[in-house]
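Appendix B, Record 12. Input sequence as logged:
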Amino acid sequence: MKWSWRLGQLAGIGIYMHATFLILLAWVGMAGYAVNQNLMDAISGIAFISILFFIVVLHELGHALAARRYGIRTRDITLLPIGGLARLEKMPDKPFEEFVVALAGPAVNVVLACVFFIVLMMVPDLPILQPVDILTGNILVNLFWINVILAVFNMIPAFPMDGGRILRSLLAMGMDYVKATRIAATIGQTMAFGFGFIGLLIGHPFLILIAVFVWIGATQEARMVEIKSVLGDAQVGHIMVSHFETLASDDTLERAIEHTLEGFQHDFPVVEDGRVIGMLTRSDMLKALHERGKDLPVREVMHTEFEQSSPFERAEKVFARLQNCECRSMPVIVDGRVVGIVTMEHLGEYLMIRGALKE
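Logged structural output:
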């Protein structure tokens, strides 16, 4: 994910912090300082948030390790101001596997809550029924209730919460997966509307933020499943653009401009001795034109590391990879030689046509 810094790794999975997470730490620090004008209060607040988000990492690690059990790799875990995000290569195809993966995160919080509860029971005269207070509350009590809250919050039956995926997996055990997703997404959007309405009514910005988060998550999940359904078992070879232009590494950007103006191609495979050695994207070409002019050789602008596909890869997987890599196209390669190009634009047209034929 862009604007993220690597903090380390757990169980072989990279842990990253998004730049916006620093805003949360700064806000907590300033809020803590503002109470008593005490620097230690600010430090205590930041320290507690750091512990809290370590628990969030453990929650996401629960998902990742459960997914690993089913052969699904986790790309990374990123800390955001609204929580953690474990980027799985894909969601499990079988409803029961999705149920296990989705439940694994809240299960981590339940286990941690039980551990803290046992520890609290061993401490005499420590009231457990007290609200979470970062500055003056007991840290063990705070951590106990934080885990309880995280477990309950994530079980809300709305995408992208774990509860939404659990609900979808349970529905999918008795009905079509697409229909199950539509029902779960509708429930999620209804809850998002409720959160937003209550948030506006009582003037609570956090509830409004949750409402937006849930609404977007439910909408995106429904859209992705609809796309998966429309693409079906189609392979890249059936969808790829087979009429395309290529560039040589010593061609200038002027040649790329000519190809762009002659047709609808935006990104170009760079070929040498019949093999693809790089990709020139439109955004990089425009930037280089602005900074260095049209006589610049393509080899100085092209990407030597790029996503690629084969004619036999499922179109659904390529669609997901194009989204994750934040690129608009990739070459389709057989034995090192480019045989086609698959683009987001062409996939979009294919989806519209297939969708229209299904109606």
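The chain has a mean pLDDT of 81.
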